[in-house]
Amino acid sequence: MRPDNIVVVAKREYLQRVKTKGFWISTLLLPLFIVAVTVLPALLIGMSETRQTIVVVDETGRLGAELAQRANSRDGKPKPDADKRGMAVDESQMARFDVRVEPPAANRETQRADLNRRVLAEEIDAWVWIPKSVLQGDRVEYHAKNTSNLFTQDALEDDLSYVVRRARLAEAGLDPERVGELTRQVRLDTQQVSEEGSRAGGGVGGMLFAITLFMILYTMMFVWGQQVMNSVLEEKGSRVIEVILSSIKPFELLMGKLVGTCLAGLTQLGIWLGTMIVLTAPGIAAAMVSLPKELNIPSLTPEMAIHLLLFFILGFFAFSTLYAAIGSAFNNLQEAQQAASFAMLFLIIPVFIMYSVINDPGSTMAVVMSLIPVFTPLLMPLRIVTQMPPYWQILLAYLFSLAFIWGMVWFCARIYRVGILMYGKKPTFQEILRWVRYA
Question: What is the dihedral of CA 274, 279, 283, 285, to 10 degrees?
Answer without folding.
Answer: 40
